Amino acid sequence: MRKIVVIGGGPSGLFFALMARRRLGVDVEVYEQNPRDATFGFGVILAEGGHGAFRDADPEAADAMAAASRMTRDRILSLDGESVEIEGGPWGGAIARIALLNVLQEICERRGVRVTYGERIENPDRFDADLIVGADGVNSVVRRGYEGQFGASSWTLKNRMAWYGTTCHYDKPILSFQRTGKGNFWAVGYSHSDSQSTFVAECDADAWQRSGLCRMTMEERRGFAEGIFARELAGHPLLSNRSDWSSLPVMRCAQWSVGHRVLIGDARCSPHPSIGSGTRIAMEDAIALIRALEAHRHDVPSALAEFQRQHLPQSNKLVLAMEKSFQWYEDVGDKLCSQDVVELAFDYMTRTGRLSESRLRAEYPEFMAQYGSRWEQWRHGREVLNS
To answer: Which pTM was predicted?
Structure first.
């Protein structure tokens, strides 16, 4: 193998490129349609488990990402202004998306990866390369030309979401739910730098219509959100970067490669921010693909088959957790009507099915020490409701 072309200069594409240059020793070219200094959205979370995998794959990149991140752990969950603190759980690194891109861009340049910005590739097949890596997001042009062969399927979620920023600082991440006369709203806020935080505002389909958000301009929606979340913003404004309210698509591919073309990250499997692992899933795709290529340096078809075969079980675990999580949010209205803030916290923490009672008590000892007496009552109520 002599040359790899990567379409898409986001985190997964750049991380794959810098690893490929060092570990495979081949020529690597990356094509990104946006300018170098452009990014959409604000901060992302790289979970503790992801940092360990990144360090095993590329210590230099992992250390640089960690140095640019703010480590967070506890969070505050509230319902109509009544709050509980959820202490414990895994650490996460909150990092501005532009800072993450800058870290990866600089390492790519030092290693001799050629990155071309501001060029949209409409026909990836025009490149004379041994491997074409589609790291170009949900609207992937690499996937688009072979939708049927990739076994692509998609649907759209009902809830609406807007990815804002704010100058409000959060010592601990917040998750705030509000039941209003105009419907159900909720928001996630976490600081990703000394001066800025990410603020993701959401509502269900009913609130989208009843509140009139569906008829507002983008700027009117930002103002409406500032009013709904005035308590959480504490007088600070919401910052917009193409931050309009939208329903997220869900896209999956049954086949990860077609010929010498392979998909990673959002091009293969669309993310959802509710478990904070979209960027991690994408970058772990890159790691798995590198390992498969290392094992089959002179046989790209075998490497791509190995990539899917070996990585599918781990990928499926995270994807299943993500799908359970976004379905929990899709149905959150019923939960808000029937639970108080402690019960909602239990429901939220166990929404993916990955946290048993023993893990809850081990990983969240202070929270369970304070509220554990209500656990059995809540669990029994859930069992009766589901019977």
So the answer is: 0.93
